[in-house]
Amino acid sequence: MSSVHLVEVGPRDGLQNENKTLRVEEKVELITRAVDAGVRRIEAVSFVNPKRVPQMAGAEEVMAAVPRRADVSYIGLVLNRRGLDRALQSGVDEVNVVVVSTEEFSQRNQGCSVAEGISAAVDIVRDARAAGAFTTVTIATSFGCPFSGEVKASWIGEIIAQLVAGSAPDEIALADTIGVGVPAQVRALAALASEEAPGVPQRWHFHNTRNTGYANALTALDVGATALDASIGGFGGCPFAPAATGNIASEDLIYMLGRSGIETGVDMDVLIKAADWLGVALAKDVPGQLGRAGGFPSR
Hints:
The structure is a single chain. Helices cover about 40% and strands about 15% of the residues. By secondary structure, it is an alpha/beta fold. Strands 1-2-3-4-5-6-7-8 form an 8-stranded parallel beta barrel, surrounded by 8 helices. Helix 7 (about 185-195) runs parallel beside helix 8 (about 215-220). It starts with a strand and ends in a 6-residue tail after the last helix. Keywords: Lyase, Metal-binding.
């Protein structure tokens, strides 16, 4: 692997669990800083009910104000048909629909069973592709659930098989929603995903809750990942997961990839400045490490 896409999820996952809600113009500023750093895939908004996740309010206004460039693709996260309609009307380039792998978390996160989530995802993928949008299905809690405990890799493989049989997405994302995964799980899930969805690119979403996120990211690259999610500053977490903590930090990931000879086209120093800006905007310390230590050799 000589290159990989960084999918910047800070404007969505990075903000959805914070006590402070950013204004629309601040969200657009964060997205603009990511674009200026060279990020070309950005999960910019989530079309969820703002009463349930108030940090995601104003999705349409954000999409109306983001810098539009031919080489930048904006992703909208959706959970249901209403979310898809809003996303398409807002002019997103990509639709990311979430399927949760466990029953209790699915009910808490989306108000539906796993089977209902799979059925909804199949319909959303079909209709989003018909509208010309690139489609991703993210399987949440692929590595473990805060309520149900361990999640068998074979069950994730069954979910993937059902999704592909219904309407294969352009990309499958496997998410360690609560940061419990280890590299052995990454290898097992990658093998199953390749078996059940041959030729479908794999995207991975890691949290660093237990300090394994970066090891998991490198392992995902070893097994053929085409895209890795990360959040500027390492902010983020699921509001429906107890003790949720942040994503792997974009700037820390870029440092690791760059020193490993893997190209992303993203400027690490611009990301560090963006992380500092976001920390001030959220009135919180930046979880990521690179802003404290800087790159090496020093510049």
